[in-house]
Design brief:
eight-stranded parallel β-barrel, 1-(5-phosphoribosyl)-5-[(5-phosphoribosylamino)methylideneamino]imidazole-4-carboxamide isomerase activity, alpha/beta, EC 5.3.1.16, about 250 residues, histidine biosynthesis, single chain, 12 strands, about 30% strand, 11 helices
């Protein structure tokens, strides 16, 4: 079970948004490379990065910041936001990304995702961001008519490395992950699912260790790490089974 620390990039800075609103951004670090190294030093083994400007623009905007991250950390990095073509995918993988995350293009052009999976096996993830159970695109600015499971099933057998599922209504507000819909998705497809949006406390970390969550590849944490609500060493120890949490800690997140 992997805990992915998140770096969301806006105008070259590490930020967290509230409910995906670019006008509600809190700046946490002006040096994305230093933030990536800090996460590595804390014991994390992966890094989740999103080019927020790129998600809205439909092309890479924070490329320099991403490259600084890749030069600074030894951890594998997955990147989403504005990656819309095979050329974009190849370019980023050549620069050292472990995998790319395709969101809007997965809705607009699922065949491109399947082609990318064939060309770059194990290197392509799909980002499914949902509001009210429907998939959102273009940096969450537009709603589609597609349901979450409906979209996910389009990629069964295509070789997608993972699905990153975000509940927009919980993102950046520390409301706790929507475990019901996340686990429902994980049970509906064979593709590994990564939970995102709302991870708030050690209760969510403990919830990741429950039997029905075992199908998940992991979860992404942003604001709770930056705000100090989650102690990295404690969280990682719980997930690795070297620390037994206090009884009843996960009850609030059942």
């Amino acid at each position: 079970m992997i805990l992915f620390p998140a770096i969301d990039l806006k105008d070259g800075q590490c930020v967290r948004l509230k409910l995906g609103d670019m006008d509600q951004a809190t700046i946490y670090n002006n040096d994305p490379g230093a933030q990536a190294k800090a996460f590595e030093d804390q014991g994390f083994e992966w890094l989740h990065v999103v080019d927020l400007n790129g998600a809205f623009a439909g092309e890479s905007v924070n490329g320099a910041a991403v490259e600084a991250i890749l030069k600074t950390t030894k951890n594998p990095v997955q990147l989403g936001g504005g990656i819309r073509s095979l050329a974009d995918i190849e370019s980023w993988l050549d620069k050292g990304l472990a995998r790319v995350i395709l969101g809007t293009v997965a809705v607009r052009n699922p065949d491109l995702v399947k082609e990318a999976c064939r060309k770059f096996p194990g290197k392509v993830a799909v980002g499914i961001d949902a509001k009210g159970g429907k998939v959102a695109v273009e940096g969450w600015a537009e709603a589609s008519s597609l349901g979450v499971v409906e979209l996910a099933r389009k990629f069964e057998g295509a070789g997608v490395a993972a699905i990153i599922y975000t509940d927009i209504d919980r993102d950046g507000v520390l409301a706790g992950i929507n475990w019901d819909s996340t686990i429902d998705l994980a049970e509906a497809v064979s593709i590994p699912v990564i939970a995102s949006g709302g991870l708030a406390s050690l209760a969510d970390i403990v919830r990741m260790t429950m039997p029905d969550a075992k199908k998940l590849e992991g979860a992404i944490s942003g604001r709770a790490l930056y705000d100090g609500r989650i102690d990295p060493a404690q969280a990682l120890a719980i997930l690795r089974g070297t620390l037994k949490p206090e009884p009843g800690l996960f009850e609030e997140r059942k």
